[in-house]
Task: structure prediction
Amino acid sequence: MKLSEELTWRGLVNQTTYPDITALDGEPISFYWGVDPSANSMTIGNLAAAMLVKCLIRYGHKPVLLVGGATGLIGDPDGKSEERSLKSPDEIEKNKQAIVTQYKQIFGGQELNIVDNYDWFRDMRYLDFLREVGKHVPLRQMLARDFVQSRLGDKGAGISYAEFSYVLIQAYDFLTLYKDHQVSLQVCGADQWGNSVAGVDLIRRITGGEAHVYSVPLIIDKTTGQKFGKSEAGAIWLDATKTSTYQFYQNWLNVDDDSALNYLKIFTELDKAAIDDISAKFNDNRGQRLAQKMLAYEVTKLVHGQEAAESQKRLAEVLFGSTDALELSVADYTALEKELPVADVPRHMSQEDLTEALVKTGLATSKTEARHFLASGAIYINNQPVSDKFLFDSGAGGAVLRRGKNVSAVLKIR
Result:
């Protein structure tokens, strides 16, 4: 399969300045993708572009990964209805290091050329910038941008000169990489199209050279209509301290059936034969949710490593399947205790101990309701129906308490 064919099959084709994406099937080129350190982590909104980068690398193209130390000090105004609050240089520096760490995790095993645009803006003087860049950018072009029009309209919040000039900084990034690293292509998300083509125009005006942009489509969650990666609690982050590995895994495990197979193409490196096989088995029995399980495992492995993916797979199989909870490790329970209600219990529980644990963990609203659940056989410990003796093997020092199919808590042995 050629690169253009794989990009089409994976659903990674969107806007591009190439007349035809088969241009990417030719000789290896150098390309770049950048992330601004406006936060100390990327989100899964960045992940589709990252997967495009990985695809280009597999076919021999050479990546330059940019971390926007300079652009991060200003903040991209595109898509923002109000002026951003400026980050301090110290905060930007910490965020840069975090983004670089994530680059190395996602693109592990590859030879990476990581650059920081602060390096070429640090010593640039204002008059030099106006002469070298500003002189070549038509004001009409900048004013025509959608976000500028919305911010300057009657109901807009206005825009500062700093944010208005952001596109010039990003355009100069492309020019610098074109000159110094022979970069002829910028990869971006759909929302960065305007900023990116400004660089193509600047390169043409200053050098007479040809450069291109390739954007990935905006991924929409069909169940919410929102940009994929947003939840009621906010963005889904790649940093486990911002979105726990458990929550990250569950996010993918809970996608709808129609989206699951598409996301396997976009967000994993599984090849067509593997995904076709998963698709056939999935469509034979959607109740088994094979597509979601494979998706959650593969993306978690990519972002958090295989050990974390294996742990989350075990947890999911215990919580939502029939796997014996005795297979959980101490580390698994430590992770689970951060996500689920916890009750301390003696190894030899009385009915009163278990009744109190059900109430404490919220699996029952009162002792009367807890006794009703017990009498009706709705309570399980380690996926086994509760017996009269309430004696269980605690495995790694804990056990999983469950009511019905999906409501769970952790029992911790004291």
